[in-house]
Amino acid sequence: MLLEQARPDKAVCRMLAFVLISLWPALVSGQLWPFGPPNIVFVLADDYGFNDVGYHGSEILTPNLDKLAGEGVKLENYYVQPICTPTRSQLMSGRYQIHTGLQHDIIWATQPNGLPLDSPTLADKLRETGYSTHAIGKWHLGFYKEDYLPTRRGFDSYYGYLTGSEDYNTHYRCDDMHDAPGGDGVDTDERMCGYDLRDNEVPVKDQLEKYSTQVFTEKAVNLIKNHEQKKPLFLYMAYQAVHSPLEVPEDYTWNYYNIQDKNRKTYAGMVSCMDEGVGNITDALKKAGMWNNTVFVFSTDNGGEILAGGNNWPLRGWKHSLWEGGMRGVGFVHSRFIQNNGTQTKELMHVSDWLPTLVGMAGGDTNGTKPLDGYNQWEMISKGKPSPRKEILHNIDIMFPPKGDNLYPDIFDTRTRAAIRVGEYKLITGDPGNSSWIPPPSTSLYFPKTSHDAPEKNVWLFHVTSDPDEEIDLSSKHPDIVKELLQRLAYYNSTAVPPVYPKSDPNCDPKLHNGFWGPWVS
Ligand SMILES: *[C@@H]1O[C@H](CO)[C@@H](O)[C@H](O)[C@H]1NC(C)=O
Ligand SMILES: *[C@@H]1O[C@H](CO)[C@@H](O)[C@H](O)[C@H]1NC(C)=O
Ligand SMILES: *[C@@H]1O[C@H](CO)[C@@H](O)[C@H](O)[C@H]1NC(C)=O
Ligand SMILES: *[C@@H]1O[C@H](CO)[C@@H](O)[C@H](O)[C@H]1NC(C)=O
Ligand SMILES: *[C@@H]1O[C@H](CO)[C@@H](O)[C@H](O)[C@H]1NC(C)=O
Ligand SMILES: *[C@@H]1O[C@H](CO)[C@@H](O)[C@H](O)[C@H]1NC(C)=O
Predict the structure, then answer these.
(1) Top mutation candidate among 403, 436, 437, 449 for ligand 6, by most atoms within 8 Å of CB
(2) CA angle 61, 332, 328 (to 5 degrees)
(3) At what angle do helices 84-93 and 354-361 cross, to 10 degrees?
(4) Do 435 and 362 have their domain in common?
(5) Structural domain of residue 485, as residue ranges?
(6) Is the domain of 252 the same as that of 206?
(7) Can you give the pTM of this predicted structure?
(8) Which ligand is nearest to the CA of 364?
(9) Which residue ranges does the record assign to the Sulfatase N-terminal domain (predicted)?
(10) Nearest 10 degrees: CA dihedral of 208, 238, 321, 76?
(11) Is 513 one of the catalytic residues?
């Protein structure tokens, strides 16, 4: 009797358990996905400037990006880091550079260095959440040991290059040997040269003379076509575009006959090609019936490089610098799950926020990571709620050559290169990098703005929400605010790990590895 009665209960229990397990991720994230967790397509552009996207008023044409951004949410108070490895490291780890040892410079191809293995990546966490995870394009988070390859960092597949830049057609790069701690000095005259393109972990030799933006787009389109939709897709599409060297098939520059500056013209063509690639990827998602269940993110990795065609007008400074031109990024999100679509937001967001945002949105958890510096911004993005973020530590680089006098020795050494955003204010110390405002080279419409800063000046305070161009330094008017922000820098500095910036290792030489850049330490 008892046993018989128990039977239907068990079945009900099993069913309830099944329902609970299937809904668990959605319940955790507070979001019920009617068709399962959405696909995530994250397009990361390289060295793409603030003034290089159509919707920021650029002379460069980006119809696909403009349309997607216009239908989605434009992130207009969004920050990345001033250079490649740091931004990518924070995207993948959700952690500030001062907590991963990557606070100085980039990872050079010749250096035995990488994003530490002690904390799972965005890809690890999405894979744990049930995603099929794929990376295409630039890695730049270390490869000296196999453990650092993207295929060992949470990606089911990878097709791309491991170093920071190379020729778009030959997929060949050369790198200097770098000094041990003390600076960016070049150690010897010897240069190491080799090919850099891999399919998963295997060197690729059959793509010579094929332009990377097209190669990577085609890979993405095929991946989407062949994607088994039992699992949601996470595609990390890290274009080589639009980093130097300035190279593009000629067709793409025809629209820009009116741009005189040769660099700007080629760069504009490179942007157009990338924009077309984004169009191809979204078309493929539509054809596969996946677009209506996709969250599409677009972001740059740092400010434009004005010496290689990029532009960040009206912002001050450019790539490499702690001025807004180095870090205020182009970024937007498109998805039909966004309630306030067709808007822009001025809520504060930082590249370290993507890990908790995307994993949280997908119904995953961030268990097992080292303490995160990022915040879950999904409610901000999708519903227009206030950002949970009040502060951004832009960086503290104790290895960067000091500048000027130590003005507040009791709080924080102001000779140190550092910057922090707290609420509406931004403080910069040390040497922030070239402080010029550079108008787009193709126009003469802009009045030149010149910096009147004394050469040894090393503290600036800006009310950056009302003065995003960083024209009015308030540091002498508001020493109290300066001290408060220096105290925040001192606090962050007390949590930092020492920078890791090893001397180049001659065993990296591609000559020793079939002519390819690749792991050299076992
Ligand atoms: C926003 O989404 C709604 C509902 O899906 C849609 O009808 C509307 O056209 C979208 N707005 C824009 C600007 O894309
Ligand atoms: C986009 O697709 C078209 C049509 O297949 C192709 O000709 C073009 O090269 C693609 N663009 C890129 C950037 O891959
Ligand atoms: C998306 O579109 C496909 C094909 O048109 C359809 O089968 C699927 O149910 C749609 N999914 C969503 C989430 O609307
Ligand atoms: C994650 O951590 C939380 C809090 O410690 C815990 O309640 C939860 O069970 C963990 N989730 C998983 C999947 O381990
Ligand atoms: C940051 O902390 C390190 C290690 O404790 C210390 O050597 C350095 O002087 C501090 N830097 C500043 C600018 O306070
Ligand atoms: C900053 O860069 C501009 C443009 O390249 C250059 O003209 C200027 O000399 C640089 N200033 C300094 C201090 O290096």
Answers:
(1) 436
(2) 85
(3) 30
(4) no
(5) 393-495
(6) yes
(7) 0.93
(8) 4
(9) 38-363
(10) 140
(11) no
